[in-house]
Amino acid sequence: MSDITELSAPETRPVKPATAKLPVAAAELMRKRGALKRELLKQKNLVPKRIAILGGSTTSEVKSTLELFLLSEGFEPTFYESGYNRYYEDVQFENPDLWNFKPDIVFVHTTWRNITQFPEILESENEVENRVRHEMARFEAFWDKIHEKLGVVIIQNNFDLPLLRPLGNLEASQSFGRLNFLMRLNAEFAKYAQSHTHFLINDILYLSAQVGLEEWQRSNYWYAFHMAVGPTATVALARSVAGIIKSIYGKSKKCLVLDLDNTLWGGVVGDDGVQNLILGRDHAVGEAFLDFQRYVKDLQRRGVILAVCSKNDPENAKAGFSHPDSILKGEDFSAFKANWNPKSENLRDIATELNIGLDSMVFVDDNPAERALVSAHLPNVAVPEVGSDVSLFAGILEREGYFEMHKLVQDDLNRTNYYSSNAQRDAAQASFGDYGEFLASLQMTAEIGAFVPTYLERITQLINKTNQFNLTTKRYTSAEVEAIAQDPSTITLYGRLADKFGDNGLVSVIVGRVLDEEMEIDIWLMSCRVFNREMEFAMFDALIEQCQMRGIRKIVGVYIPSAKNGLVAGLYGTLGFGSVEGTAGGRQLWSYDVPAAYEVKSHHIRRAAETVTVALDEAKATVPTVKLA
Amino acid sequence: MPNDGTKRNEFLLEMDEILNLPAGTLRGDEKLENLENWDSTSLITFIAMAETNGGVSLSSDEIVTCSTVADLLRLARVDGDAA
Fold it and tell me: Residue A132 and residue A146: Cα distance in Å, rounded?
């Protein structure tokens, strides 16, 4: 199952109406904006988000289009818009309206038109370099101030390119060329992004190329409305920004489910035989299938889970991957459903098997009837209208941005390995009559410690994506997690778990707020990868150690019920907490007196870490841990 | 492009959508200033629609001289008259 969906039970109830699907064509989306918004607002459980758009040009079109995309992803956005081209002043002169708005996210919508000084023709390399430094200093001061004052995630456009090239091709090759200058700035923006986790690039250099520069920059809209990006191109821009935001809040898709015949190869493997499948460089369409397979493989390499859902005999289906040109192999798929059942049933089974939500899945099938059936029965599954031309499949998936990721950490890459080893775990479990014996046989080792910089991105990812084993479902930005890690009044714990089949990675997080001799659990979550493995007990044992060492006598357990975390409603009771009567406001409180002599609860996990650092601050002491087993 | 009544009606229906009105509301003689949802967003959408559907490139200067829906139809070359 996905490490980031985290125990989200396979969702079978539609949570949004089928009408919420946005049209693909930009003009249709614009025309139907009002009706679409009305429909989308009918969805239940929309998550409110406050988005500040700081614009270097007119932003009203950006705002109204972004609103649609965010609504379609389950957010209910409220917007702040800077005055026209007041993006810089709003921040540097501390506009109280922006400060009081308290955004969750700041989106800076600037373009090449906001460059203050382009190089002069024949200017020396040194002078151009100075201009790059000057421009970067201006932007860095601006970003740093946003971070310092608001502490939020910043989404920043990089630079598109001007349509006009007075220097022709020299614009690209000469250092004083404007295109060359913008590309250097883009490289500097990227460097800043690499060293600041709260800073994300919205790549309009790519988007403008994808849309086409003439469509991106429409002079009539610029002169009439000072829109730096034309209205239909704004749809692409808003989709991209919404994709980043959905990734930040853990709403990107996690699993690509694929049909086989005429989707991954040409022909019907059961009828035509493996040797006659159209796949490979010696055939025009075969090459297109090959390239689509390569794209799918690339997605798998970066952590997208693959599954097969095909109407086929299983032997035939598997045989297809033995084609000598097939890039994809049977072992690339974490779930494999080849049978004659309705595909909606198979998709449900895949969701159950992988323990991910149906809303985490994208289904690709060349057959329009199958697509329509799945859409009708499972409205939460994304079913792109890929048509039947395989040469377009990857581009359509790409355009939708289903798998957008704002950060890539090692655990993402290890995810598919986890699924392979999990099949081995399941097989091993079946051979044991006693569950305790099975747990012992796994030879589990846990590394549990206070937050360290290396893991902050993964910890932030888990905080924002875990739904089921999540006691409070509180979401924090990377900047907030950094602050928590350095706050001496918190106890932080991360947990990694490995076993004889492989490394599950960082799978659990606890944050406790300490006040005198009491600690309140602010966050406690765990990946569904390791549910029923006693990892929650190992984390609790480590938490008790920390409490004992810090003289904490009482732990207040907080449980905030959500649509998805019913799984842990009884966790505190299981651990020996007493329920506190009369709690309200959606928070259920539990109480636990920390005993002087504590008997560990985890009996099958060996602790690997030798020390636990109390906080990131190096001045703080490191304290020895007690071996649990 | 054909400038018959069908095109005009289709355009009016699309204008209904832009302005978030029930289909068939607009007849063509309405004053823009009286339409509650006529704003910069609907104006931009109208221009984009005229460009997409009719292959007509409009500037905002042309549009600001319009006072009725009929004027917009004329600009978009779907007023039923010869262009």
Answer: 21
